[in-house]
Amino acid sequence: MDCFTHSTEHLLAELERVDLLIQAQVARARQLHVDDEQFRGLYISEQELDALLKQPIGRPRWYQANNSVAQPELALHELKQQIDLRKQATLAKGIDLRLDALQQIFQLNDFESDVLLICLAIELDLRYERLYAYLQDDVTKKKPGVDLVLNLLQLSAAEKLKGLQSFYEHAPLLSNNLILFSCDAAQPDQPLLAKSLKLNTRIAHYLLGSDAIDERIRPSVTMARLDPSDCPDEYHLDQNLIGRFSSLLKEGWATCAAIINLIGSYQTGKLEIAKTLCREAGLNLLVVNIEQLITDKDASPEKELRLITREALLQSAAIYWKDFDTLMDHQHKALFDTFIRHLELFPGLTFLAGATTAWQPPGELRGTPYMQVELPRSTFADRTRIWSAALGNDLSAQTDFDIAALASKFKFTGGQIQDAAETAKNLARWEDSKTGKITMKQLYEACRIHSNQKLSTLARKITPKYRWNDIVLPTDRTEQLREICNHVKYRDRVYSEWGFDRKLALGKGLCVLFAGPSGTGKTMAADIIAGELGLDLYKIDLSTVVSKYIGETEKNLSKIFTEAETSNAILFFDEADALFGKRSEVKDSHDRYANIETGYLLQRMEEHEGVVILASNFRKNMDEAFVRRLHFTVEFPFPNEEDRRRIWEGVWPEATPRNPALDVGFLAGRFQFTGGNIRNIALSAAFLAADDSGVVEMQHLLRATQREYQKMGKVVISSGEFEQHENT
Predict the structure, then answer these.
(1) Is 181 helix (H, G, I), strand (E, B) or coil?
(2) Does 250 score more than 80 pLDDT?
(3) Less packed terminus of the chain by CB within 10 Å, N or C?
(4) How many CB atoms lie within 10 A of CB 101?
């Protein structure tokens, strides 16, 4: 017996059987119809009906005209036997038949499978609309009704009653959204037999060979790329861990309802582990973005969860629930309960992926195989090895690559390192198309591109502009700033290679306090450190963090610190005493909650493994608990006369035209300004000069100095104080 060469050929053969079912029903219906010329146009004529019956769907090669009307019942029986034999031969050869697969996935009986075919027919050929209208004796009813389907497929009254149960809400056809009732707005309360049926669009597409995800869940669902040529070693996953997971798959976890809960931060490769296991088990992987699912206000979570489950079954896929922690929030309790019900019903492998939240399944899932694993971060040695492999020949051709610096500053997974290396190569090709030589600058830029950028929605990103020669500080303070940079550069060597991480449970990040009057260079110093390290700098806007509502401040801070972990960025809290100030004696509920905020900050700073810089005008305002946990405290003193002179000399851009006789020594000695004030005066003088002679003169500086005094609310200086310069 010949087999079907592909699934569509089988589908068309089954639709020929539907044609014969319709012919048998037409033979019965004709006995009831009486031709009446005055009503032609309101119903389908006998001649047109014969033409429709003779017209094959898409003219398939297996169509036999002699099977048409003469003996439909006999032809139907013979065709059914022929299709069954060919189907068995096809499945024996390992050729997938989608109609059969759909029947197996949703446990459909033969009757329910035929219902799908009858509904599918009008999706392929509109002539069936007219045939169904004829059989239902109503030219407006172009979709098959429940009564028509039962008449087509059942012979006895008992079988008809049994078939009616397939259209109940809990039955597979409706509970899995395989078919829909096509409602008539004019008749909202129709009996079940009168309701029209429509095949779900996604099911129709599936039967016709499409694997495109249902458009209703596309905003929150993607199919992970599982290229057979991908090598798991590309990500340098823990092979011992992979081996233990693989043993679970061999025990049958890939073919039954089972849950693997992967706990770890963004950098730990949770998705890569799920991909590796699915590739090994021969499964696809459906990735669900829970945050997107929750924020979609137009969708029904209950409906979307059902569609996601159905999509996974259609695609022979495991489900990867990204950001599972989000569902654990108390405000999503109703959705979480719904999620648990769907988790209980899904018969396949499920991955839960969260950052920190440990979770044990409730009683409903007590019989479901469950494994919870906390994944370690990639080590400095791992990242160094992966960087070396990713750069390959480029590394051997260069002598100035500092791989250790990249591995230390950017805590990437293997996949992120591969992506960053490829981006750096593209940047090099763009800047130098002939050689395509990669530089460290391009590698740093690529790393920043592939770092998580969500922090920009919570804080203001500052692009570093200043260098070491732009800041004027006492030598000891400058050395402190360089020590801060060294702390970041060599932290992995000290913590990992030298073993200090085993001595410290918390506090592996870097927390620095910059204290000093406004304008003494605190923000500039943070800018210089970020530029020296090649990291992004984010300035926290306290107006978006502090809230009068209880608990909101902690929630905002949690978002900032969580995103900072994956952004490989420096957090800069300016005016930090507003958040990190001293705890007060509890006199009312406001004091108690203010102290709770401070305690929460202490906890998050200890847990944070990145760089946090606090800036305060008054160190004495800082809570002592914060000061004890600081790694560095840098005092920014009010500049003395010598420092002010250096600031005056360095504040001018090279292109600024200025009189060589400018007496900056007089300005430095006479006026006690901070660096910020001096910068403001220089800028104002430049605008005054642009409107005057086009060259910055002493008179412009003196007038700008007067304006700065006015802005500061101080007594305006008199011109007599500048007698030696008033004619310059």
Answers:
(1) strand
(2) yes
(3) N
(4) 17
**Structure-token pair, residue 571:** 């957090």
Q: 16: closest CA among 102, 120, 145?
A: 120
Distance between CA atoms of residues 595 and 579, nearest Å: 10
Contact at 8 Å (CB) between 448 and 536? yes
Q: Is 519 helix (H, G, I), strand (E, B) or coil?
A: coil
Average pLDDT score over residue span 33-58: 58
Average pLDDT over residues 24-42: 60
**Cα–Cα nearest to 574, from 543, 607, 536:** 543
Q: What is the pLDDT of residues 579-624, one digit of tens each?
A: 665 555 444 444 455 566 667 777 787 788 889 998 888 777 777 7
- Supply the Cα-derived Rg of the chain in whole angstroms: 37
**Any alpha helices (H) in 410-469, and if so which ranges?**
414-431, 440-450
Counting Cα atoms < 13 Å in the Cβ hemisphere of 557 gives: 23
* C-beta of residue 481 within 8 angstroms of C-beta of residue 522: no
pLDDT band, very low/low/confident/very high, at 66 (cuts 50, 70, 90):
very low
Q: How far apart are the first and last CA of the chain?
A: 109
Q: What is the reported pLDDT for 314? A: 94
Res 597: pLDDT: 67
pLDDT tens digits, 411-452: 887 778 888 888 988 888 888 777 778 888 889 888 888 887
Place of tokens 């410290």: 504
Alpha carbon distance 16, 192 (integer Å) = 28
Question: Does residue 728 register a pLDDT over 50?
Answer: no
Nearest to 179 by CA among 252, 85, 116: 116
Place of tokens 């005209």: 65
**Side-chain half-sphere exposure of 240, counting CA atoms within 13 A:** 3
Tokens 């969260």 sit at which residue? Answer: 354
Tokens of 340: 């648990």
Alpha carbon distances (Å) from 580 to 27, 115, 198, 577, 657: 87, 68, 62, 5, 45
DSSP 613-676: EEEES-GGGB-HHHHHT-SEEEE-PPP-HHHHHHHHHHSS-TT--B-TT--HHHHHHH----HH
Percentage of the chain surpassing pLDDT 90?
Answer: 24
CA 592 → CA 115, 587, 589, distances in Å?
66, 8, 5
Is residue 207 pLDDT above 90, yes or no?
yes
Domains and CATH numbers, the chain: 7-207 (no CATH), 221-374 (3.40.50.300), 380-450 (1.10.8), 468-635 (3.40.50.300), 641-722 (1.10.8.60)
Q: What is the mean pLDDT of residues 500-517?
A: 79
Three-state DSSP class for residue 218: coil
**Dihedral (C-alpha) 353, 355, 359, 361: value to the nearest 10 degrees?**
-10
Tens digits of per-residue pLDDT, 540-570?
A: 877 667 777 777 777 788 888 878 877 788 9
Tokens of 44: 């389908």
Instruction: Report the SS3 class of residue 394.
Output: helix
Helix/strand/coil percentages in the chain, nearest 5: 55, 10, 35
DSSP label of 496: I
Copy the structure tokens of residue 174: 């409706």
User: Is residue 319 within 8 Å of 312, Cβ to Cβ?
Assistant: yes
Task: For residue range 286-345, list pLDDT tens digits in order.
Answer: 999 988 888 876 667 788 899 999 999 999 999 999 988 888 877 788 888 888 888 888
Token pair 């500061």 is at which residue? 712
* Helix 110-124 / helix 7-29 crossing angle, nearest 10 deg: 90
> Rounded to an integer, what distance in angstroms lies between the CA atom of residue 84 and that of residue 3?
10
**From its phi and psi, is residue 366 left (phi > 0), alpha (psi between -120 and 50) or beta?**
alpha
* Burial (Cβ within 10 Å: 0-12, 13-18, ≥19) of residue 577: buried
